[in-house]
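Archive entry. Fields below.
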Amino acid sequence: MQSRSDYFVPDGSYWPILGSIGMAALLGGFAASLHDSLVGTISMILGFGIIIFMLFGWIGQVINESETGTYNLQVDKSFRIGMGWFIFSEVMFFAAFFGALFYARQLSVPWLAGEGNNFWTGENLWPEFKSVWPLIKMPDTTNFTVPKGIIEAWEIPAINTLTLLTSGATLTYAHWSLMDENRSGLIGGLIATIILGVIFLGLQAFEYIEAYQHLDLKLTSGIYGSTFFMLTGFHGLHVTLGTIMLIVILMRAIRGHFKKDRHFGFEAVAWYWHFVDVVWLGLFIVVYWL
Amino acid sequence: MNYIILIFFIFIIYSLASALYYMMKDGGGSKRMVKALTLRVGISILLFLFILFSFWMGWIKPAGVA
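PREDICTED_STRUCTURE:
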């Protein structure tokens, strides 16, 4: 690495324009496919393929540049700042959804039942309505699917919490192994974390099938169903992304990438996984317990 | 009981946030980040065990249909 004052200027690259073409094809194709256009569907699939190709190509090039020692301290710093902004956006993303749950549960549902200065709102709209959470007895069920029950905390959610907590421990083992220059520990820890992530996703999918088929708990089940699926669904999406990122890190670890004092890619993905883990713990407490 | 869970959670967020700070601030060679993350995992496991214990003791109940 050179000093922080020198800046690495990369060569011209065709990845950004290719990515733009891919995104335009994906979104334009998606819009057209909603109007039953076959060309639109093909364009959507093609656009998705281009984006995946671009991601592999661009990130692969960055990894290659990093491994050949092109980057200096200034570039290292810029990666860290970039990750900082990404994390900020993720925190805001989940804050909005937890906020939506809080608003519905603590404020709007009690207001509809006449709490605060909304006595006449309750009297005029649905005088029989009582504010309870989980809200599965909606005052007006015309447009909603009324669920028969909710997912119990001590079934799959508790097993999933244990799965993710264990994955946090195996990842920490991998992290310590990297710091102690124990390559097999690093690879073993990463493999265990990936397997636990896949188990989590499998159980989550099973839970959704259970909710839809046996409990009639759906995205259309009023405010409880929509907040439940929105929070747990987006969390599941993050676990999926985290697992893909961990697989990339595992491949790099197998190829001998990452040194004791030079492994920002590992650090960023590890922190992301810990973050997703903490979000789940928050969900487990707020959604299933309180 | 909710307050005890909240205190646990504040410590978890604090250790996670400090790991982020160390990641942003330190270079690759520092062990401060991995130590903070280890603390994060440790407190999270303690919290899970505490919830388990509280349930067993009957102090808390899962959210159910009233």
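CURATOR_NOTE: The interface with chain A takes residues 2, 5, 9, 12-13, 16, 19-20, 23-24, 27-29, 31, 33-34, 37-38, 40-41, 44-45, 47-48, 51, 55, 60, 62-66 of chain B (CB under 8 Å).
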